[in-house]
C-alpha cells in the first residue's frame, strides 16, 4: 500500500513537471494547435478558400511578439496559406512555429549603429545576442533598469516610424507579384470572407492604397489609421519597389522629422508614385469597438477590419462567422451582427430608473459612452442652443437644469425624442487637508447615436487653480463619468433597421 502510494505520488509529480516543461519549452516549438485543415473543418475557408493572390503582413515587434499574439492572428487568417502570412518585426526571431523577419535590417549602418532613434533597437540586439528574452526589457523593474515604462514606450514608438516603408519592401521581397498585400495589426480582427469578397471586386492591376482615413496637423494628406491596418494592390507595391534603388534609402533620412509611420508611408507613396489613400471606412474601422457609431448609414455594411479587439471577442466572432456560414454560404457579416453580438455583453450594465423619470435605462458608473461626440452632424443634442433657448415656448424651459444631477440629465434625455443615450460628468474640487469643497457640479451630454463606450476610471489630479494660486498638493480635482442608454430605444433601434 505504501509502495503504491509513493508510486502514485511520483507519477503525479512527474506529470506535473512534464506539464510545466511542455508549457514553457516544448509547446512554443510545436505547430500552431489552432491550425487545422481549413477545407474540411472551417466553414469560412470552405465558403471562401484561399484565392492564392493575397499576402498578409502582420506588423509586430520583438518587445511584444508572443506565442499568444501570433497564434491569435494566425487563427484569424488560417484560411490563408502559411507561407503568405508574414510576421514583420524589428528583430529576426523564431517564436514557436512562427518566423519573424527583421524589416529594419536593410537600414543604413549609420542609422542602426549610431542614430539615437535606434537606441532601443541596439539594446534588443545585444539582449538577443546574449540569449536573453527581449520581452523582458519591457518588464524590468526600476531597480534593474533606470528607464521608465513611458520612456520605453516612446522609444518603441519612434522606432516604429521606420518600419512602414521597410515593411512594404520586405513583403514584396518575401512574396513578390501578389495581387494584394494586406498589412495587418495583431490587435485587430479581420473578417476573412468579407476581405476576400471586397478584394475580388477591385482591379489589382491599378495602383491602390486603402485604409481608414485620418488626418494629422503636420500633413495635408490623409493617412491610414494604424490600428486597423492598410491594404495595397500589387501594382502599387511593384511601382514603389521597382524604382532602381530602395526607396527606404532616401526616406529613412526624413523619418525623424515625421509624426508616425503612417505619415511616412502616405507621404512617400504620394511623392514617389503619386498615390493617395482611398478611405475604406467603414470596411476598415479605425475606431475602437466602444467608439463605433452604430448609425443607419453603416448598419448593413460589411465589416472587414476592426481595431483593438480583445481575445475573448476574437473567439466569439470566429464562432459567429462559422455559424452564419454553416447556415448560408452567402452570409455577410455586417455592423448589425456586430451590434447584436456586442449587445449580449450589455447584461453587465445595470438596468436603472432615475427618480421622476419613467424611462428604464441601462446605467453604468465609471463609463463613458461618448455622448459628447460631435464627430457626425446631428449626433450631439445641444440643449443649450441659443435658438432653442430664445423660444419662450420651448420645453427646455420647463426642465430642471440637466447639469444638476444624473437624474436631471436623464429627464432631459427623456424630453428629447431623438435622445438615445446620455453621459454625465461629475466633478469636484476639494481642499485635501480640511476636506472643504471649493466647487462641484456636473455636465450633461445627450446623443442621438448608440455607442457602447469605454471604461473611464475616477480621474484625480492636483488643481493649481488654473493660474498656480493653489500650492502643489493642496487641492484635488476629481472627475467621474456615468453613462446610460435608453433600454426601449435600444431595442426599437436595433429591431427597426433592416438590411435588404
Automatic annotation (TrEMBL):
Source superkingdom: Eukaryota
Q: Which family does it belong to?
A: Belongs to the glycosyltransferase 31 family. Beta3-Gal-T subfamily.
Keywords, A to Z, come to: Membrane, Signal, Signal-anchor, Transmembrane, Transmembrane helix
Origin species, per record, is Myriangium duriaei CBS 260.36
- Identify its membrane topology class: Single-pass type II membrane protein
Q: Any coiled-coil ranges, and where?
A: none
Keyword Membrane among UniProt keywords: yes
Classification via InterPro entries: C1GALT1/C1GALT1_chp1
Q: What is its main location?
A: membrane
Spell out the subcellular localization from the entry: Membrane
Gene Ontology cellular-component annotations: membrane
Q: What is this protein called?
A: Glycosyltransferase family 31 protein
What is the annotated signal peptide range for this record?
A: 1-23
Keyword Ribosomal protein among record annotations: no
Amino acid at each position: 500500500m505504501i509502495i503504491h502510494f509513493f508510486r502514485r505520488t511520483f507519477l503525479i509529480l512527474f506529470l506535473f513537471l512534464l506539464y510545466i516543461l511542455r508549457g514553457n519549452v516544448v509547446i512554443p516549438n510545436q505547430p500552431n494547435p489552432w491550425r487545422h485543415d481549413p477545407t474540411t473543418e472551417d466553414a469560412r475557408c470552405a465558403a471562401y478558400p484561399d484565392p492564392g493572390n493575397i499576402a498578409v503582413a502582420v506588423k509586430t515587434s520583438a518587445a511584444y511578439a508572443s506565442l499568444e499574439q501570433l497564434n491569435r492572428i494566425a487563427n484569424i487568417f488560417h484560411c490563408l496559406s502559411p507561407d503568405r502570412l508574414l510576421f514583420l518585426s524589428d528583430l529576426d526571431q523564431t517564436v514557436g512555429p512562427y518566423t519573424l523577419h527583421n524589416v529594419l535590417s536593410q537600414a543604413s549602418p549609420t542609422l542602426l549603429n549610431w542614430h539615437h532613434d535606434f537606441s532601443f533597437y541596439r539594446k534588443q540586439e545585444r539582449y538577443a545576442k546574449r540569449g536573453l528574452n527581449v520581452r523582458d526589457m519591457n518588464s524590468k523593474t526600476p531597480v534593474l533598469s533606470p528607464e521608465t515604462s513611458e520612456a520605453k514606450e516612446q522609444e518603441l514608438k519612434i522606432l516604429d516610424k521606420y518600419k512602414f516603408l521597410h515593411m512594404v519592401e520586405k513583403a514584396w521581397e518575401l512574396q513578390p507579384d501578389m495581387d494584394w498585400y494586406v498589412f495587418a495589426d495583431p490587435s485587430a480582427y479581420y473578417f476573412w470572407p468579407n476581405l476576400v469578397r471586397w478584394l475580388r471586386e477591385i482591379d489589382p492591376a491599378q495602383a491602390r492604397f486603402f485604409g481608414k482615413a485620418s488626418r494629422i496637423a503636420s500633413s495635408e494628406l490623409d493617412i491610414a489609421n494604424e490600428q486597423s491596418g492598410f491594404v495595397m494592390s500589387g501594382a502599387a507595391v511593384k511601382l514603389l519597389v521597382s524604382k532602381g534603388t530602395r526607396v527606404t534609402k532616401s526616406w529613412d533620412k526624413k523619418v525623424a522629422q515625421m509624426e508616425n509611420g503612417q505619415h511616412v508611408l502616405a507621404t512617400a507613396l504620394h511623392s514617389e508614385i503619386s498615390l493617395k489613400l482611398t478611405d475604406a471606412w467603414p470596411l476598415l474601422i479605425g475606431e475602437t469597438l466602444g467608439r463605433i457609431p452604430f448609425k443607419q448609414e453603416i448598419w448593413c455594411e460589411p465589416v472587414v477590419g476592426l481595431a483593438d479587439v480583445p481575445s475573448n471577442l476574437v473567439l466569439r466572432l470566429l464562432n459567429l462567422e462559422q455559424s452564419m456560414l454553416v447556415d448560408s454560404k452567402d452570409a455577410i457579416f455586417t455592423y448589425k451582427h456586430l451590434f447584436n453580438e456586442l449587445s449580449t455583453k450589455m447584461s453587465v450594465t445595470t438596468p436603472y430608473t432615475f427618480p421622476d423619470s419613467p424611462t428604464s435605462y441601462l446605467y453604468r458608473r465609471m463609463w463613458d459612452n461618448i455622448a459628447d461626440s460631435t464627430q457626425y452632424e446631428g449626433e450631439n443634442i445641444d440643449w443649450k442652443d441659443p435658438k432653442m433657448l430664445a423660444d419662450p415656448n420651448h420645453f427646455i424651459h420647463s426642465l430642471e437644469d440637466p447639469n444638476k444631477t444624473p437624474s436631471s440629465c436623464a429627464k432631459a434625455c427623456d424630453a428629447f425624442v431623438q435622445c438615445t443615450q446620455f453621459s454625465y460628468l461629475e466633478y469636484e474640487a476639494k481642499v485635501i487637508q480640511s476636506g472643504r469643497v471649493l466647487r462641484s457640479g456636473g455636465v450633461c451630454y445627450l446623443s442621438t447615436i448608440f455607442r457602447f463606450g469605454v471604461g473611464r476610471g475616477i480621474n484625480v489630479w492636483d488643481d493649481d487653480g488654473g493660474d498656480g494660486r493653489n500650492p502643489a498638493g493642496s487641492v484635488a480635482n476629481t472627475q467621474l463619468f456615468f453613462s446610460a442608454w435608453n433600454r426601449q430605444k435600444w431595442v426599437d433601434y436595433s429591431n427597426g433597421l433592416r438590411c435588404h
